[in-house]
């Protein structure tokens, strides 16, 4: 690996040297002629050449071949200047003076609302996550980065994967949307992470609570909406390189992004690569079911992985139409903790401790390819929005070919293969019949085709089609009082395919004879579902305080695994059986949100009450299959209540304090587990953050020192076979700063993080590996740099 890095560095160095011998640099200053003040943000545009002036008025254009060039210099409020430059050796720095322009305007009526104001007027409990938040809190996966937000947690799978949980609900109850299209993979699996590159994302909206009205069936618990980045400015070119290194799992990562726009056409592109080894835990042994697993140098063996991502988009902007098409591909290979797959490592010949960076069995590979198109058309008083998407998710799960029961020795290591293709179409017509109403009519359609392979069976092949129509209206009673009401109807079909074992099993007949049968695991079944979703809410803004209340009805269609699974899930140490008689989940929820913002203090509280008529869950039974306990999907009434509280205060101009608390209480009110909570229920948790910042420290600009202290209560409310989890306290530290390294006026952003400062041994109740008593990662030092250009 080191030789590869050195070779790449040498290659780029030689290229840079060769280029420098045949190119020149244009440097200069842009100044206001009347005041002699520097003109910050002026654009210097030539043929295939571009620059923007800094706060001192300076600009630089690199790698210019000898010759004669014409440039146009523009700045808001100034007359444009056109100059001709002879590029060659011994060039002088340029000084360009811009004169103010004089323009006579007719009377202009300005009307508009900021994004913050619009969010306050919508009676939905949501939170906007900015690019700054993502950069400052970046962890190993997108959902781990977002877990600092109250009400949001994760189901973590090792150090490189995680999936979202909103207010204690996850899996297919939380819709993840990117560029308007729902991300469709194998998100039903506990051990299946989220195949999305977190680099290059600028804006995320998180909706807490039912959002089926807008997003369809799988948004019954909430939405993580990854929104499209801002369109580049005309005649612009910029980019950045992100470099990341971590000590705990020896991670090395790099991500580079470019964006450019001429007049109406623009493009963006990004490449990301990450490679990491086994992560370390603060213990040297693990005790699971009376087996002691010794850990070599505290490494959680076989949790290494790598990831390679790429995306490119091309877009068009004009007065009447905006369109962007994005091609992306995420490819990852991750090992599973060797002792987590049926305990078979006890008899394995693999030397898992020979290297901390190799990926042995068991492991999985996933490739997620996605094409999306977002088009907006202005048609008079109507704005028509189209979202088109195609996704192909290819997941392979490999394990040692060990026979079980009547199964002979498998022919290879490919235990399971899932190939899922999804086609999506969204349409919305947004219009204003008058000044008081903002109305939207919409349609969502999605078709999925899921194929399977491998020698192990868990879920059948299936086709799934869903379609929904909806309408809602945001009505302005007065400037500060708004009502939003909407209605939606969804229809869906699930068509599961028959499957028989590839090997015969012995069956004892009633007459005493023995038959050898290829047992049938699933049948050809077609099921249809239809239901209504509705929502009505009110928002009221009074000076510095906003009030929201919303009540909604949502539903979720059962998934193919819930309807027709019939096999051993070794990652979860259980036999899972589906239930074709399941009804759609129906959820009623009341949300309230109160937010107050003053000059030096702000706070918010957002409680909720939620009732499920028929929550779907896996129930452990008293039956066994070859010593493995059988779990069956069933339904129950569930009552949930909880919420979040957050507060912020400015102690001085340099010191800021933030505090947040989140809690969810769940209780099953019918069924076999009546009186119990729900699986993976997060415990009461609080976060106290202190941020100290100054303008300059030594050679650091805008340095910030951040301390996050997480306090998590014990989780005694469990569903067997879950185990109770002790409470813990965790301290994380960060140092953020900017460095003036280059002459282009764009600072390098530096982030140094120290997670788990005291190397605390603790258990996260929502972690995948919590089921086998594996603690969370130990102390970790990370260094990341963002280099803009």
Structural description of this entry:
The chain has 789 residues and is mainly beta. The chain has three domains: 23-98, Carboxypeptidase-like, regulatory domain (Immunoglobulin-like), CATH 2.60.40.1120; 115-219, TonB-dependent receptor, plug domain (Ferric Hydroxamate Uptake Protein, Chain A, domain 1, Beta Complex); 222-788, Maltoporin, Chain A (Beta Barrel). The strands form eight sheets. The chain has a 22-stranded antiparallel barrel. Strands 8-14-15-12-13 form a five-stranded mixed β-sheet. It has a four-stranded antiparallel β-sheet with strand order 3-2-5-6, with no helix packed on it. A hairpin with a 2-residue loop joins strand 10 (161-166) and strand 11. Residues 1-21 and 103-111 have low confidence and may be disordered.
């Amino acid at each position: 690996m080191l030789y590869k890095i050195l070779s790449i560095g040498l290659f780029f160095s030689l290229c840079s040297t060769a280029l420098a011998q045949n190119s020149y640099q244009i440097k200069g200053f842009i100044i206001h002629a009347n005041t002699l003040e520097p003109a910050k943000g002026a654009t210097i545009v030539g043929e295939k050449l571009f620059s923007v002036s800094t706060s001192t008025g300076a600009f630089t254009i690199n790698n210019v071949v000898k010759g004669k060039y014409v440039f146009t210099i523009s700045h808001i409020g100034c007359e444009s200047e056109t100059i001709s430059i002879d590029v060659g050796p011994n060039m002088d720095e340029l000084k360009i003076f811009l004169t103010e322009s004089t323009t006579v305007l007719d009377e202009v009526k300005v009307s508009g609302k900021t994004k913050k104001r619009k969010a306050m007027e919508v009676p939905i409990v949501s939170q906007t996550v900015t690019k700054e938040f993502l950069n400052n809190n970046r962890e190993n996966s997108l959902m781990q980065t977002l877990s600092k937000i109250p009400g949001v947690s994760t189901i973590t799978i090792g150090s490189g994967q995680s999936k979202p949980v909103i207010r204690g609900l996850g899996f297919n109850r939380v819709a993840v949307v990117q560029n308007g299209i729902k991300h469709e993979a194998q998100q039903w699996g506990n051990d299946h992470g989220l195949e999305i590159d977190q680099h290059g994302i600028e804006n995320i909206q998180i909706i807490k609570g039912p959002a089926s009205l807008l997003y369809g069936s799988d948004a019954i618990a909430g939405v993580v909406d990854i929104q499209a980045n801002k369109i580049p400015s005309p005649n612009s070119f910029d980019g950045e390189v992100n470099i990341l290194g971590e000590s705990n799992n020896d991670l090395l990562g790099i991500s580079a992004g470019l964006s450019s726009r001429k007049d109406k056409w623009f493009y963006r592109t990004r490449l990301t690569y990450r490679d990491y080894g086994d992560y370390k835990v603060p213990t040297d042994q693990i005790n699971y079911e009376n087996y002691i697993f010794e850990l070599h140098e505290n490494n959680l063996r076989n949790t290494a992985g790598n990831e390679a991502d790429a995306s490119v988009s091309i877009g068009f902007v004009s007065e009447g139409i905006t369109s962007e098409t994005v091609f992306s591909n995420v490819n990852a290979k991750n090992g599973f903790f060797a002792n987590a797959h049926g305990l078979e490592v006890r008899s394995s010949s693999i030397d898992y401790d020979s290297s901390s960076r190799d990926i042995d069995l068991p492991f999985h590979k996933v490739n997620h390819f996605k094409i999306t198109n977002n088009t907006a058309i202005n048609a008079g008083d109507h704005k028509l929005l189209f979202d088109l998407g195609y996704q192909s998710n290819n997941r392979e799960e490999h394990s040692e070919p060990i026979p079980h029961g009547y199964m002979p020795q498998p022919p290879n290591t490919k235990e399971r293969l899932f190939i899922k293709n999804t086609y999506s179409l969204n349409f919305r017509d947004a219009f204003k019949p008058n000044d008081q109403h903002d109305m939207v009519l919409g349609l969502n359609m999605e078709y999925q085709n899921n194929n399977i392979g491998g020698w192990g069976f868990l879920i059948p092949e299936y086709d799934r089609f869903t379609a929904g129509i909806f309408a809602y209206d945001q009505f302005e009673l007065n400037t500060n009082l708004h009502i939003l009401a909407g209605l939606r109807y969804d229809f869906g079909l699930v068509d599961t395919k028959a499957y028989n074992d590839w090997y015969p099993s012995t069956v004892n007949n009633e007459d005493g004879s023995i038959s050898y049968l290829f047992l049938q695991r699933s049948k050809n079944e077609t099921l249809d579902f239809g239901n209504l979703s509705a929502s009505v809410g009110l928002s009221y803004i009074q000076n510095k305080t906003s009030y929201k209340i919303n009540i909604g009805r949502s539903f979720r269609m059962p998934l193919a695994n819930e309807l027709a699974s019939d096999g051993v899930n070794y990652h979860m140490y259980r036999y899972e059986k589906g239930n074709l008689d399941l009804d759609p989940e129906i959820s009623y929820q009341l949300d309230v949100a109160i937010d107050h913002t003053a000059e030096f203090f702000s706070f918010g509280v957002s409680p909720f009450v939620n009732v499920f008529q028929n929550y779907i869950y896996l129930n452990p039974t008293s039956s066994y299959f070859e010593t493995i306990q059988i779990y069956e999907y069933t339904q129950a009434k569930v009552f949930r209540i909880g919420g979040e509280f957050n507060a912020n205060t400015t102690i001085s101009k340099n010191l800021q304090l933030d505090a947040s608390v989140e809690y969810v209480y769940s209780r099953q009110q019918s069924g076999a587990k009546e009186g119990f909570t729900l699986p993976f229920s997060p415990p009461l948790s609080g976060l106290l953050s202190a941020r100290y910042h100054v303008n300059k420290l030594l050679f650091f600009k805008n340095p910030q020192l951040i301390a996050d202290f997480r306090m998590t209560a014990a989780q005694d409310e469990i569903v067997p076979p879950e185990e109770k989890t002790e409470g813990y306290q965790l301290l994380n530290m960060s140092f953020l700063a900017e460095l003036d390294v280059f002459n282009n006026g764009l600072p390098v952003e530096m982030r140094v993080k120290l997670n788990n400062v005291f190397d605390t041994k603790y258990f996260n109740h929502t972690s995948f590996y919590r089921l086998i008593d594996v603690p969370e990662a130990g102390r970790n030092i990370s260094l990341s740099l963002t280099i803009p250009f």
